[in-house]
Amino acid sequence: MHRTIFSTPVVNTLLRALSVTYLKLAGWQVQGVLPEQAQKSVLIAAPHTSNWDLPYTLMVAFVLRLNIYWMGKASIFRFPFGPLMRWLGGIAVDRSKTNNLVLASAQAIQAADGALQLIVPPEGTRSKTRYWKTGFYHIAATAQVPIVLAYMDYQRKVSGLGPLFVPSGNLEADMLQIKAFYAPFKGRNADQFESE
Question: Is residue 34 within 8 Å of residue 117, measured between CB atoms?
Fold first, then answer.
């Protein structure tokens, strides 16, 4: 995978210190730790209801010492912001093309030399949606890595890493369990998030 802000030593140390300080002053609490068996994993990013989710997610990732990559719509990678978005861990996704994003993502995780956590918002959009996309599930199952139930609750100002979830192969049953975990959390625009 390409070099990111998380794999740039001096910058990483400085931004971690700034992230810890900012989140503490803003009243946020960061919880959890990435287990050793999840160094390569897929992180669910939910609820995803605002553009503010990205900077907060990046700060939480610094605090937790993660090496994250995230998917974003191709339009945010256009000039002049493309190089910056990629350095922040972004991977452009062209939603207008039919390509095997699941297989490509799984292969990238498997081929990575070291730790790599791929963040995928299950809603697939910041807009209100009732149905979650299941790409994160299929990526994890194909790469044979666990899913980390990561969360951001704006109401309680709590963010972090929840339990690991290993896909059983029963998509419907697994999605019910995953959505049940997210039911208590409130996004920045809480009315746009449904976990039922």
Answer: yes
